[in-house]
C-alpha cells in the first residue's frame, strides 16, 4: 500500500495518528481490496482511489465528530456499513468509542467479522440485520448515528430516529446534493446543528458533514377537568 499517499492525506487533515494506527488502516484497506476481488464489497477499485475515496473520506469526519460528541465513550451506530466505512477507520483511530456496524448483506458482514478479528477491534460489534430490526431490538441506545452513501437524507433520518438517545446526534456524510436533500427534511422533526465542509486531500469532489438532532417535542398540555 502507498504509505506516502496515506500519510499525506492524514497530514493535511491535521490528525495525529500513531504508526500503529497507520499500519492498521493499511491492513484494513489491503484486506478490503483482497475481499473485494471476490465479494464486490465496493464499486471503487485501484489503490489510490480506494485510499482517497474510502479511507481518507471516512476519517475526515473525525474532527467534526470530536467537536460535537460530548460523551467520553459514545455509542455510535453505522447504518448500512457495507465494507466497514466509515466505522472501521473511526474505530481504529478512536479506540475509546464504541461502534456498532449494521449491515444486512451477509457477504459484507462476513468481511466485517473477519476484519474485526484480524485487527482486534474490541470496540466494535457487527449486526447482520436490517436497520429497522435493530431499531426494534435496541431503541434509544445510541449517542450518534452515522452513514456514508447509505440512502437519501430523509430516509436516513427516519431510520436513525428510533435508535437515538434523546440528546443523540446524526452525522450525515453528503456531497453537493445536501441542499436538495435538506429540503425534504421536516424542520419540525430535525434541527440542523452544523453543515461542515470536509476537505479530502488530493480529491476535488465536494464533501460535507451534516450534524442534526431530533427536535424535542413538548408534552401536550393537560386541560383542567
From TrEMBL:
EC number: 2.1.1.170
Keywords: Cytoplasm, Methyltransferase, rRNA processing, S-adenosyl-L-methionine, Transferase
Catalytic function, reaction form: guanosine(527) in 16S rRNA + S-adenosyl-L-methionine = N(7)-methylguanosine(527) in 16S rRNA + S-adenosyl-L-homocysteine
Signal peptide: none
Localization in the cell: Cytoplasm
Family label: Belongs to the methyltransferase superfamily. RNA methyltransferase RsmG family.
The protein, known as: Ribosomal RNA small subunit methyltransferase G
Species assigned in the record: Polynucleobacter meluiroseus
Amino acid at each position: 500500500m502507498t504509505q506516502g499517499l496515506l500519510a499525506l492525506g492524514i497530514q493535511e487533515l491535521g490528525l495525529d495518528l500513531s504508526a500503529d494506527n497507520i499500519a492498521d488502516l493499511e491492513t484494513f484497506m489491503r484486506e478490503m481490496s483482497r475481499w473485494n476481488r471476490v465479494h464486490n464489497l465496493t464499486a471503487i477499485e485501484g489503490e489510490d482511489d480506494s485510499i482517497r475515496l474510502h479511507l481518507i473520506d471516512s476519517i475526515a469526519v473525525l474532527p467534526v465528530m470530536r467537536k460535537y460528541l460530548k460523551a467520553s465513550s459514545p455509542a455510535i451506530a453505522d447504518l448500512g456499513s457495507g465494507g466497514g466505512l466509515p466505522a472501521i477507520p473511526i474505530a481504529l483511530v478512536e479506540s475509546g468509542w464504541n461502534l456498532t456496524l449494521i449491515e444486512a448483506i451477509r457477504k459484507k458482514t462476513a468481511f466485517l467479522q473477519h476484519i474485526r478479528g484480524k485487527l482486534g477491534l474490541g470496540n466494535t460489534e457487527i449486526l447482520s440485520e436490517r436497520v429497522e430490526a435493530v431499531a426494534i431490538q435496541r431503541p434509544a441506545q445510541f449517542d450518534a448515528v452515522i452513514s456514508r452513501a447509505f440512502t437519501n437524507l430523509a430516509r436516513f433520518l427516519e431510520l436513525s430516529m428510533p435508535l437515538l438517545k434523546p440528546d443523540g446526534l446524526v452525522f450525515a456524510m453528503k456531497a453537493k446534493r445536501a441542499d436538495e436533500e435538506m429540503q425534504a427534511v421536516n424542520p419540525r422533526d430535525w434541527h440542523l446543528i452544523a453543515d461542515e465542509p470536509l476537505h479530502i486531500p488530493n480529491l476535488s469532489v465536494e464533501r460535507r458533514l451534516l450534524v442534526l438532532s431530533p427536535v424535542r417535542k413538548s408534552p401536550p398540555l393537560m386541560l383542567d377537568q
